[in-house]
Amino acid sequence: MGILHQLKQFTFVKLRILKYKSLSTCQQVFGQPKLYHPLLLNGKGKISFGKNVQIGVVNSPNYYSHYSYFEARSSESEIFIGNDVSINNNCSIESLSKVTIHDNVLIGINCAILDNDGHDLAIDKRLSGTPKCAEITIEKNVFIGDNVTILKGVTIGENSVIGNGSVVTKSIPANVVAVGNPAKITKEI
Predict the structure, then answer these.
(1) Among 37, 66, 102, 119, the one annotated catalytic
(2) Distance, CA of 175 to CA of 119 (rounded, Å)
(3) Which letter does DSSP use for residue 148 in this model?
(4) What is the pLDDT of residues 74-123, one digit of tens each?
(5) Quick one: which H or E segment has residue 168?
(6) From CA 105, how far away is CA 160, in angstroms rounded?
(7) How far apart (Å, rounded) are the C-alpha atoms in residues 77 and 64?
(8) N or C: the chain end with fewer CB closer than 10 Å?
(9) Residue 104 and residue 54: Cα distance in Å, rounded?
(10) DSSP label at 123?
(11) How many CB atoms lie within 10 A of CB 153?
């Protein structure tokens, strides 16, 4: 590696990773992911990383311009990420209850995993009410394509594949490919 490459890495990658680490507010972070991309960890809950968790991919869009965002919003909220998980650039995981990602999961760029509605749906409670939430579980060996949104109460079964651009509103069984909005099973693996 030449000095120019090292200088670029330090300026455009390492400093950004340190910046977002210093901006993070979550006090209950366990484990140490390999950061190739900035990660902001917020909330009053617990965020746990298993062994060999990778955040960010160098040869992928949004590497130099975006960051990933994980929030365990309340003191009871939890995000658990197992071993050997790879999460591409610009991913957001927001938990009001619990999000569990098991071992050997691959997650593409621009994915959103949201275990809650964000706001109460009642007009008079949107700013002050508590949104509905339900746990999300992503089982072992799941592959989630780019630009996928996974909504509250969903379980994705082992070995399944979620196609690019899908919106997962209901649970997906093991060993299938699901695509679309809303995501539907197109074939078995």
Answers:
(1) 119
(2) 33
(3) -
(4) 999 999 999 999 999 999 999 999 999 999 999 999 999 999 998 888 88
(5) strand 167-168
(6) 10
(7) 30
(8) N
(9) 11
(10) G
(11) 17
Per-residue model confidence as pLDDT tens digits over 122-146: 888 888 888 999 999 999 999 999 9
Partner residues linked to 54 by β-bridges: 34, 86
Structure token digits, residue 12: 């455009």
> Annotated catalytic, 5?
no
* Rounded distance between C-alpha atoms, residue 30 and residue 110, angstroms: 24
CA torsion angle for 12, 16, 17, 21 (degrees, to 10)? Answer: 170
Give me the phi and psi of 174, to 5 degrees please.
-70, 155
Whole-angstrom distance, CA of residue 73 vs CA of residue 96: 5
Residue 171 carries which side chain, given as an amino acid letter? S
What's the burial of 143, exposed, middle or buried (CB within 10 Å: 0-12/13-18/19+)?
Answer: middle
Q: What are the C-alpha distances in Å from 145 to residues 15, 59, 68, 74?
A: 29, 16, 16, 29
- State how far the Cα of 30 lies from the Cα of 11, in Å rounded to an integer: 27
Confidence of residue 1 (pLDDT cuts 50, 70, 90): low
41: tokens are: 């960890």
